[in-house]
Specification:
Elements (H helix, E strand, L loop, with lengths): L5 H6 L12 H13 L27 H13 L12 H15 L16 E2 L2 H12 L29 H18 L10 E5 L2 E2 L3 E9 L3 E12 L6 E7 L2 E8 L7 E9 L2 E9 L3 E2 L10 E15 L8 H6 L10 H20 L5 H16 L4 H13 L2 H4 E2 L9 E3 L2 H12 L6 H8 L6 H12 L6 H10 L20 H20 L12 E4 L1 H7 L15 E4 L12 H6 L8 H13 L26 H8 L3 H15 L13 E2 L2 E2 L3 E3 L5 E3 H10 L2 H17 L8 H13 L4 H9 L2 H4 E3 L5
Antiparallel strand pairs: 1-12, 2-11, 3-11, 4-9, 5-8, 5-11, 6-7, 6-9, 10-11, 13-20, 14-15, 16-17, 18-19
Helix pairs in contact: 2-4, 3-4, 6-10, 8-9, 8-10, 9-10, 12-13, 12-14, 14-25, 15-16, 19-21, 23-24, 23-25, 24-25
């Protein structure tokens, strides 16, 4: 479903006519039958659109998407095909006007439907953020998870988030990693180590190192060694502590095959000397075998690991946070179990994003008992419990129960808390939100909006930058953008980072300062550091002289740099490695600013040829693209995209301003299909601002999709219209957009699955 028909708006249908739309039965249906009936009727209509099945009664509901698809094809001139009988312009306008003024005007008389979100797991960003907020750990284990599938432009859509076997394996490994980071045990894994360099011992002698212990404790000694074997016996090595042999090893491996020899030593408090000693020197220079004349010990290094089992003076923060009530090592088993259960219960409730059930706690404590029965300590047993908690479906999935068939139910406060937190923070509810939900104070419009506004002021709301804007604006694609090094030698990793950071800071300023979303189309400022300022030719940013890495807001000329279309990150992800791409840039505008992607390219249409050393191209890019559009199969689509892209030709593939492309002067002019002309990005943005309400609809559609974690349906059009209207009435502030989303039935309710 698309909430707006931007293709129509861009080509000049203009404001709705005062007269009612044409009659479907007498004015529109006969035209469709005459010009489209050969291909779009019967059992298998072309493109899946059968006009013999589409009716006026369902045009504004279940058939809305089909009519929108038809509108794009008709107005773009793609249909009917060039070799078929063509309608007159008046006939085209009749069909387009009925679709745009009737079929695409949602019927909201019955109110808004909530729809239904598919059960979905946490995606990678949500997983990492949730364990961070749950335990306070620094681990980011989801970096090793498989990439999340993308649907409707985002990677957290329930319908596409699969659970492959490899992900189950990664969940288990991540759970163990997190449990070890949360519960600190003074074992080998957490012990510090010292390494002492080794050397070759050609005769009896030793390699030494000195270490200390604050108290009586165990240490692990690891010596990597090899030998030159000679005589009847293997090389022998003693591990000595403070001059006394602790253990003697045979070292039968040769110089090219060093091996590790390990022993455990208990030491008293104080300083100690550890040594690897060569015990059995052998030298017989007259041996007939040259390889059997000299026995030597080669010590690569000595590692001393410890102390082990000695509690640290200061436990890590996640450990202190979990053990708010220590387990008494002298207490009996039952008392220790009771304390462990008290420690686990609040974490289980927070992890499950609801009150943990008694049966769930009993199951977790059964694991604790089994671990203790195996002789493990309470801390080791609690690691097992936390690992189980982190692989529970109640943690990995956001679960909402369905209402009875045919019914709609209000989500409870706990469910709304999760929807809010994963919408705005990509993470679990914090204590304030969770406690408000438990107290039943998170279900009225006022309560939801107040909670959302508080959350937008929290630094965790930067998740909207990373996970909403990063995907909506395709900033993540910048990581794989690799311009030609010979043509663009100034492009480097610092510039790539600065390009992305500019757009992130710009979007964050809209969120954090509650500014108008229309600034995304056209603004009088942006954010730069010294590297990006140089790239843009900004020479008067004095503050950057003191801190070149800092990003600061700077004023810009609206005709060149204002808004997203003047930012290097956007211009780069819509370019090719060797040249700009007016097609990609025009398509980006249609898709991401107006939610109206152009019709798909016909099959087997070749790409615009690229220049090579063996076959240089002649003519400007504009001339070559005009030749490309000479193909009737290409012209219909490109007449929508290309003019928009040509308006941005003053920007090279890495977003630097230019007036020449090689020896050819840039022509940044364009003309939309309705005849409106412009020259350069400033005039292009002026035309786009004339359609600002369509941009409101677009961003409302994108943000609602992101908030719900599902694709929008035909019945969501009413919500989009309401949200866009309220946003306009609220001075287009970002907070108004969020407030209207969280008040919507789609966000607050859930309907039963549709009958199949």
């Amino acid at each position: 479903m698309r909430a707006c028909a931007m293709v129509v708006l861009l080509i000049g249908i203009g404001p709705a006519n005062a007269a009612p739309p044409p009659a479907f039965t007498t004015a529109v249906k006969p035209l469709l039958g005459h010009y489209c009936g050969d291909c779009h009727t019967g059992e298998s209509p072309a493109g899946g659109v059968g006009f013999d099945r589409l009716t006026e009664a369902t045009a504004r509901t279940t058939d809305r998407a089909a009519w929108q698809k038809a509108l794009r094809q008709i107005e773009a001139g793609v249909m009917p095909p060039a070799d078929m009988s063509q309608p007159s312009q008046e006939e085209r306008d009749t069909i387009a006007r009925w679709i745009s003024e009737f079929a695409l005007v949602p019927d909201c008389s019955a109110g808004e439907r909530p729809g239904r979100v598919t059960l979905r797991r946490l995606n990678r960003a949500e997983y990492d953020n949730t364990v961070r907020d749950l335990f306070g750990v620094k681990a980011r284990p989801a970096v090793d998870f498989p990439a999340d599938d993308i649907g409707y432009g985002f990677d957290h859509i329930g319908d596409v988030l699969t659970l492959p076997p490899v992900l189950l394996e990664r969940y288990l490994a991540a759970a163990e990693q997190i449990a070890h980071e949360v519960i600190f045990i003074a074992d080998e894994a957490n012990a510090t180590g010292q390494r002492f360099p080794g050397k070759t011992l050609p005769s009896t002698g030793q390699v030494t190192g000195e270490f200390g212990s604050p108290a009586k404790a165990e240490f692990i000694i690891r010596i990597q060694a090899a030998g030159d074997q000679a005589g009847p016996d293997p090389v022998r090595m003693a591990v000595r502590l403070d001059g006394s042999d602790h253990r003697i090893f045979d070292v039968p491996n040769r110089r090219g095959d060093p091996r590790e020899y390990v022993t455990h030593i208990e030491v008293a408090a104080g300083r100690h000397t550890i040594a690897a000693a060569f015990l059995n020197d052998y030298y017989r220079p007259d041996d007939p075998d040259p390889k059997n004349r000299d026995r030597n010990l080669h010590v690569r290094h000595i590692d001393v690991v410890g102390p082990i089992g000695l509690p640290p003076e200061h436990y890590p923060e996640p450990h202190r946070r979990f053990f708010r009530k220590p387990i008494d090592p002298q207490a009996d088993r039952l008392s220790q179990r009771t304390t462990a259960s008290e420690l686990v219960k609040p974490y289980a409730s927070r992890a499950f994003r609801r009150q943990a059930l008694p049966a769930e706690l009993d199951a977790l404590m059964t694991l604790f008992d089994a671990s203790r029965d195996r002789g493990e300590s309470p801390e080791q047993a609690l690691r097992i419990v936390l690992s189980a908690l982190l692989v529970s479906p109640s943690f990995l999935f956001r679960i909402e129960t369905d209402p009875p068939p045919g019914a709609v139910r209000d989500l409870d406060d706990i469910e709304l808390a999760s929807r809010l937190s994963y919408f705005l923070w990509s993470s679990m509810p914090d204590d304030d939100l969770f406690q408000a939900a438990l107290a039943g104070q998170l279900h009225t419009d006022e309560q939801l909006v107040a909670a959302a506004l508080r959350m937008l002021r929290d630094p965790k709301a930067r998740a909207l930058v990373d996970n909403f804007a990063g995907q909506w604006l395709q900033l993540r694609s910048l990581d794989s953008f690799t311009p030609d090094g010979k043509q663009f030698p100034d492009f480097d990793e610092p510039l790539r980072r600065a390009m992305r950071r500019e757009t992130e800071e710009f979007f964050w300023s809209i969120v954090a300062e509650d500014r108008s979303i229309l600034e995304l189309l056209d603004a009088d400022s942006t954010f730069v550091n010294a590297r990006l300022a140089k790239h843009y030719g900004l020479t008067d940013v004095e503050v950057l002289d003191n801190d070149p890495e800092a990003f600061v807001r700077v004023s810009v000329d609206r005709t060149t740099r204002g808004g997203l279309l003047g930012q290097a990150a956007i211009l780069a992800v819509t370019s090719n490695p060797t040249r700009t791409s007016p097609v990609k840039r025009g398509k980006w505008i249609l898709e991401n600013l107006f939610a109206a992607p152009p019709p798909p390219a016909p099959p087997n249409v070749p790409d615009l040829p690229e220049a090579t050393a063996q076959k240089p191209l002649t003519g400007t890019l504009r001339q070559r693209m005009e030749q490309h559009r000479a193909d009737p199969g290409c012209a219909a689509c490109h007449k929508l995209m290309d003019p928009l892209g040509f308006g941005l030709e003053n920007y090279d593939p890495i977003g630097a301003w230019r007036t020449f492309d090689g020896e050819s002067e840039i022509d940044p002019s364009g003309e939309l299909p309705d005849g409106r002309a412009f020259s350069g990005p400033g005039e292009l943005k002026t035309l786009l601002r004339e359609r600002e309400h369509d941009f409101r609809r677009c961003i409302a559609e994108k943000l609602l999709t992101y908030a719900l974690g599902r694709g929008l349906e035909w019945y969501d059009a009413c919500a989009i219209e309401r949200i866009a209207d309220r946003c306009r009435d609220g001075a287009d502030r970002f907070s108004v957009l969020v407030a209207e989303i969280v008040k919507s039935p789609a966000f607050r309710q859930r309907e039963a699955p549709a009958d199949r």
